[in-house]
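User: Earlier you gave me the apo prediction for this protein. Now I'd like the version with thiamine diphosphate bound, so I can compare the two side by side. Same sequence as before, with the ligand SMILES added.
Assistant: Got it. Here's the input I'm using:
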Amino acid sequence: MDAGTVATPKIGAEVVVRTLEQRGVKYVFGVSGAKIDSVFNALVDSSIKTVVCRHEQNAAFIAGGIGRMTGKAGVALVTSGPGVSNLATGLATANSEGDPVVALGGAVAMAETLKKIHQTMDTVSLCRPVTKFSAAVPAPEAVGEVVANAFRAAESGRPGAAFVSLPKDIMSAPAQGQLIVPPRFQGLGPADGQALAEAWKLISTARNPVVVLGLLASKPANAVAIREFIEHNNLAVVGTFQAAGAVGAHLLTNFGGRIGQLANQPADRLLDSADLVVTIGYDPVEYDPSQWNKGNDRPIIHIDAIPADLDNYYRPVVELTGDIAQTLKALTLITGRPNKSPISEALLSEIKKQRETQIAEAKEKSGIPIHPLRLCYELQNFISSDMTVCLDVGSFHLWLARHVYSFRARQILMSNGQQTLGVALPWGIAATLVRPSEKVLTISGDGGFLFSAMELETAVRLKCNLVHMIWIDGKYDMVRVQEVAKYGRESGVALGPVDPVKYAEAFGATGMMINSPDDVVPTLKRAFDTHGPVIIGVHVDYVDNHKLFEEVREDSLI
Ligand SMILES: Cc1ncc(C[n+]2csc(CCOP(=O)(O)OP(=O)(O)O)c2C)c(N)n1
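And here is the structure of the complex with thiamine diphosphate:
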């Protein structure tokens, strides 16, 4: 067996660990159990750090965060039965949102698979709908193959989740087979030349082309190529929530803002006006084409790593499938539209004026509890280029997604495929590990916080320097506003109070409260000067939240 630079594995569990080392894995996140303890045992003799989590779902979230920030699969390791079923939401989130994750789960011995004994579960079937790859290792000689193929599936094309079930007898059996070394050269090239020429024909003759950036646009290499392409052709551009940061600050005058959730944004007006839509790294999971393209029969150019999901409302005439960055470079070489279209120019200058008006009004919002726009304003000024911001899901994230800009790819992380509550704190833990020189700010509502708040103990144990802000309103508000709009009343959304300061202190973290709008930045500064995790509570005034869901192409969400 060629073990490369690492010691020769003696049992299946060691083959797993050596394969992880070979893939450059630095951390595994998980919860152990009797069916997987041989792999945890083998980790002790490896270069990999084992991070014990308080719940498997959070292990998958942290692994997903690592995947999103590095492009390399994050790894979760859990026991059989409920250990794996607890992963499901984390894997679904990663899989929908393009984040590479490899999850490894324990299992009963092969011969016991069909028996109803302790923790038997058909976890391969359970994970199939929430992964790109779900398989059990069937024999000792297949350990290296299956784990290597799981990585391949997780990291290639549109990245996503992969699951491998590791039967305990195979993990403790003598190692057989090979460690599979990944090819040194791999990957896609630019799209087909004829398709590129067709795309250019459409772009050069369109009256008002508009670019839509989707979740893969914010992969850093893609973002660089996108900036050149937009600048070179002076194109108008809008982006989904997960495309945040793909457009550079120097292109703000081309940027119409974010789209998603509901077609009521200024950027939706710009997109509506297009006679040609060019999507880059777009996945319908973030923004359903029936929302933004119903009734439109303008041509669409689809630029992505994988072919489009065809849809009544999304039927590209040209598909540029391949490596996105290389495709855009190739397209930039043959294109050249120096002037913005007059239609986009006019709309973009209107959007700029609206932005300025909103900023002026946000500054003046001095009430207590604090208005979301004032918080967005303070945060926009506070967020520095060396900061990673991880958002949970709720009304608060719609305010932030629509009103806080970022000009660095994957600086602001959002869950917009599954919109899964609880991602923020685990992603923040991931950020402190893979971006150790950055400041990490995570934000949730008081509902979503408690979906993963037990992981504060992990953050304290790892001495993570992160600041977590909780917007407090005592409700699952994003659900409440929609219920009130539909039924005229709310149901099942009221929560009891939790004291963030005492909660933080119970875990050995620091707790703070923001008590007024002028207190926002000083409190954040104090929090970032404090070692270890800090929880900050802030009471918010959600009086205007109904506007987040109003059907109009709203100009003033103030
Ligand atoms: C796991 C999961 N369960 C339920 C939902 C539905 N949901 C979306 S937002 C939300 C409320 C979030 O409340 P909170 O975190 O307090 O933020 P707020 O909306 O109040 O700002 C709920 C329950 C979800 N997205 N994910």
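For your comparison, keep in mind: The radius of gyration is 24 Å.
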